[in-house]
């Protein structure tokens, strides 16, 4: 352990910056080994700061070597500044001055992938959240916004393409075979949005004409061998630009918008002003190498980063506690965009399913935090599902409470009022409130209270009076640092259905309709409906109108009715899930008790009806028939018994497969897609149901299914079908699984993104000696510890492999802990993310819990980065 442990910083300590930087002029003399960075910062004291004699304190990184610092051309002797704790401190300053700094950095030794680093043969940057300080000394905080001019000097042959934010304003050839290019970005921005790229890159060009008829140049850059895979991203970009104009009235502002793909990247993509940088896994797409899921992900991420141009760049965050201001809002925007491009209901089911599995688990674990955290040790640890997905749900609830029209008024006011500013979540809510007249005072608690609220619903029907009463109780469980909670303002969309499945009209608050919006604000509240003709079945929390756990005592018959007839597509899926969860929970109990497993409900009949109903969207049928994941069942469990969960799922799947063998065989034939591959909702839906049917059909033991898996693997003309066949073979224990895995690697060994899928699948394979096989894979040519995508595929995949990771001998925990300790020395962000599966130790069955805790303690005893220290120490607390 280190002698002094890293300390936390607090939202309550926020102070405006004592200095401002009006202009930032940077010069990079690019060199792989040692790059010289010269900065000229045009600074002045901040008139809004009370600390008008405070010293100038600039942030830097351990690896930034200061060569010289001058103030208004006066070179400071070493006695006139201090370098302590990675900060450059200058005591005596004028009110207005130009600070010149010359620093040296080593891009090729930068393994953290923050700041300026190398990815294959190019230079690139990643500055969010606090990466700019690894380039030079700066006020590296988002409320310091500056106009950047960047000169890049590099070898013209190795680096013909040199890019930064804004517009290229000058270019000259220097005597020594080098080229100098100057970029200027007229929009003031915080340093986290700075970007630089240099490399030998190919480009795809296009244009977009904005709503005010300005022509914007669009460019996507990749290494030469990937340029044939950017067409889909380019189309997605144009769709995003149009959508933001139509739905939010937001037009693009610069004359050029560039995207660059890089192979080594800690995250998915980054919204640097005018120069987005993407992990190549989130940008490149071709039918042969990319699955449907990845196509949709590429589209969503292109949209997400583009949308940040307004929600994040033009209006940015005051401090990193406000991260959800840009991320939650932008996720809500990209979710709405994808819903509009494809199917609304399918998109909602996928997002909610992810939220309920992963964000709810985070909210119930040791790292639980509010959407606007009150403190952190390392900000990189707070790019979480809570900030992103729950943050998006908060914006969605505001949309629900205000309605589309007032919400738009609110977003217009927000963008107009705060253009060019660094603001807070409170500012966002204030704009929504003022533009709509809806009181959001209590609603704001959603930002400051962690934990998933639970709502209990009971009902009562009075036949004589034709009234129906719903009583809702809310309670939010304690989370670390927050023992007690206040009631939240929760929008609950409710519909009523009669016993034959028809919408049932009722009067509520003088409004007669078959759907109502209840606003739950008290700990307990009664909602009364009148003119209710018969006893209803309630369809509660339609569209998942709030991120809560809702319970109501439905009978199986009620759930079957909702599954087949609810007017709300989302709640049909939810009823199917609930039926499956109920059945699985019974099976899990049987397994824990060591009893023989047997089915207790009529789930199979419900599923049969779905398969036979030709009026349904095949994508929805596939989503409903897809059994709740082990991860979701673990989230729901009080105490997790991984083997019981696995046994229960396998048993149920087999029972369904055997009972509906004919139906699955038919569905497999019926939903084949003909014609060239298209990443369109209709075809994606067919493929998803067809491949789900194939998985059940194989599980039923049918010999013909075995052959169909092999045939599909060999003859598929797209990665969705080929990889589906392979996954099915691997997960269902097909006797040719090994052959197919080998064949797949042989076929795709020169396509790194496909190889990553192979790594992920290999790591998630359930087998007795899984850790041995992981150790072999780590030595395979396909693996590279330096590449975050490969680490995520292999080690991330292993963390999801419940039976291997939770092996009773503890070997899975030990293996992961070993890797975390190795990786932490290279890349703390990646190491920290790998810790997640270990942090859930308190919920595990006792024999596993102790082994997991021992590994956490072993990690804790090491000399750790801030990133890993924070996650592990909070997990053990
Ligand atoms: N601003 C983030 C990228 C980022 C995150 C940089 C954390 C540095 C630290 C970007 O807008 C983002 O949110 N990217 C997501 C994908 C998005 C679709 C949710 C990502 O990278 O996973
Ligand atoms: Zn984002």
Secondary-structure class:
alpha+beta
The level of helicity is 40-55%
Number of helices: 28
What is the tally of beta strands? 33
User: What can be said about the biggest beta sheet?
Assistant: 8 strands, mixed
Average pLDDT, all residues: 97
**Low-confidence runs of at least 5 consecutive residues:** none
- The fraction of residues in strands falls at 15-25%
Shape: globular
**Spatial strand sequence of the major β-sheet:** 6-5-9-3-2-12-15-14
Describe the structure.
The structure is a single chain. This protein is α+β, with helices and mostly antiparallel strands and 877 residues long. It contains 28 helices and 33 strands. The strands form nine sheets. Strands 6-5-9-3-2-12-15-14 form an eight-stranded mixed β-sheet, with no helix packed on it. A five-stranded mixed β-sheet has the order 17-18-19-21-20, covered by helices on one side. α14 packs across α16, α24 runs parallel beside α27 and α27 packs antiparallel against α28 (866-876). The longest helix has 24 residues, at 569-592. The chain starts with 8 loop residues before the first strand and ends with a helix. It binds ligand BES and zinc ion.
């Amino acid at each position: 352990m280190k002698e002094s442990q890293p300390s936390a910083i607090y939202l309550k300590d926020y102070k405006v910056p004592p200095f401002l930087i009006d202009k930032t002029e940077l010069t990079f003399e690019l060199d792989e080994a040692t790059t010289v960075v010269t900065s000229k910062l045009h600074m002045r004291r901040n008139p809004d700061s009370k600390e008008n004699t405070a010293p100038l304190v600039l942030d830097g990184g351990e690896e930034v070597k200061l060569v010289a610092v001058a103030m208004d051309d006066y070179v400071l002797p070493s006695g006139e500044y201090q370098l302590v704790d990675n900060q450059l401190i200058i005591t005596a300053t004028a009110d207005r001055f130009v600070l010149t700094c010359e620093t040296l950095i080593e891009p090729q030794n930068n393994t953290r992938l923050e700041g300026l680093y190398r990815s294959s043969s190019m230079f690139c940057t990643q500055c969010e959240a606090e990466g700019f300080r690894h380039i030079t000394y700066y006020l590296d905080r988002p409320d310091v916004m500056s106009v950047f001019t960047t000169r890049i000097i590099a070898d013209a042959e190795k680096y013909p393409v040199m890019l930064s934010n804004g517009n290229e304003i000058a270019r000259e050839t220097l005597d020594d075979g080098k080229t100098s290019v100057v970029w200027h970005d007229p929009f003031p921005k915080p340093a986290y949005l700075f970007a630089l790229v240099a490399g030998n890159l190919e480009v795809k060009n296009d244009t977009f004409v904005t709503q005010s008829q300005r022509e914007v140049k669009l460019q996507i850059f990749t290494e030469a061998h990937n340029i044939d895979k950017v067409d889909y991203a380019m189309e997605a970009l144009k769709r995003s630009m149009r959508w933001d104009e139509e739905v939010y009235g937001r037009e693009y502002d610069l004359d050029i918008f560039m995207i660059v793909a890089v192979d080594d990247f800690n995250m998915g993509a980054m919204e640097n002003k005018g120069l987005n940088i993407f992990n190549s896994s989130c940008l490149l797409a071709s039918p042969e190498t990319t699955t449907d899921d990845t196509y949709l992900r590429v589209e969503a991420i292109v949209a997400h980063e583009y949308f940040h141009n307004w929600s994040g760049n033009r209006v940015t965050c005051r401090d990193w506690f406000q991260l959800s201001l840009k991320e939650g809002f932008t996720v809500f925007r990209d979710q709405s965009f994808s819903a509009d491009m494809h199917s609304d209901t399918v998109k909602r089911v996928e997002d909610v399913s992810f939220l309920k599995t992963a964000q709810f688990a985070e909210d119930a674990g040791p790292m639980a935090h509010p959407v606007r955290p009150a403190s952190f040790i390392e900000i990189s640890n707070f790019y979480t599902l809570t900030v992103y997905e729950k943050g998006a749900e908060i914006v969605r609830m505001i949309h629900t409470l205000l309605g589309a029209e007032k919400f738009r008024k609110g977003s217009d006011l927000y963008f107009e009022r705060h253009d060019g500013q660094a603001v807070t979540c409170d500012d966002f809510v204030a704009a929504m409130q003022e533009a709509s007249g809806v009181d959001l005072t209590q609603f704001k608690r959603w930002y400051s209270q962690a934990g998933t609220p639970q709502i209990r619903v009971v009902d009562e029907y009075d036949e004589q009076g034709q009234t129906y009463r719903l009583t809702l109780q809310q309670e939010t469980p304690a989370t670390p640092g927050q023992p007690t909670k206040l009631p939240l303002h929760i929008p609950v969309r409710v519909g009523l259905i009669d016993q034959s499945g028809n919408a049932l009209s009722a009067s509520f608050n003088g409004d007669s309709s078959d759907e109502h919006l209840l606003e739950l604000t008290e700990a307990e509240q009664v909602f009364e409906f009148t003119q209710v003709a018969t006893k209803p079945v309630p369809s509660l929390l339609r569209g998942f109108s709030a991120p809560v756990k809702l319970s109501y005592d439905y009978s199986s018959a009620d759930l079957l009715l909702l599954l087949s007839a609810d007017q709300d597509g989302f709640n049909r899926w939810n009823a199917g899930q609930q039926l499956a969860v109920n059945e699985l929970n019974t099976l899990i109990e049987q397994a824990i008790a060591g009893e023989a497993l047997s089915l207790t409900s009529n789930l199979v009949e419900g599923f049969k009806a779905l398969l036979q109903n030709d009026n349904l969207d095949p994508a929805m049928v596939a989503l409903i028939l897809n059994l709740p994941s082990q991860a979701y069942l673990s989230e729901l469990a009080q105490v997790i018994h991984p083997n019981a969960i696995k046994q229960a799922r396998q048993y149920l799947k087999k029972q369904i497969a055997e009972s509906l063998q004919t139906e699955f065989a038919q569905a497999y034939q019926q939903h084949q897609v003909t014609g060239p591959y298209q990443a369109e909702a209709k075809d994606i839906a067919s493929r998803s149901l067809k491949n789900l049917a194939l998985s059940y059909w194989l599980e039923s033991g049918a010999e013909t299914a075995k052959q169909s898996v092999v045939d599909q693997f060999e003859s598929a003309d797209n990665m969705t079908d080929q990889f589906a066949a392979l996954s099915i073979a691997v997960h269902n224990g097909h006797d040719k699984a090994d052959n197919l895995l080998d064949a797949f690697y042989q076929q795709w060994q020169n396509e790194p993104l496909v190889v990553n899928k192979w790594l992920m699948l290999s790591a998630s394979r359930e087998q007795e000696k899984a850790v041995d096989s992981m150790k072999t894979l780590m030595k395979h040519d396909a693996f590279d510890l330096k590449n975050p995508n490969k680490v995520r595929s292999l080690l991330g995949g292993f963390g999801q492999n419940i039976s291997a990771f939770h092996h009773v001998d503890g070997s899975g925990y030990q293996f992961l802990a070993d890797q975390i300790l190795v990786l932490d020395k290279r890349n703390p962000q990646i190491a920290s993310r790998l810790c997640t599966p270990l942090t859930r130790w308190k919920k595990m069955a006792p024999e596993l819990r102790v082994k997991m805790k021992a590994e956490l303690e072993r990690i804790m005893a090491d000399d750790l980065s801030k990133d890993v220290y924070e996650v592990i120490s909070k997990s053990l607390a």
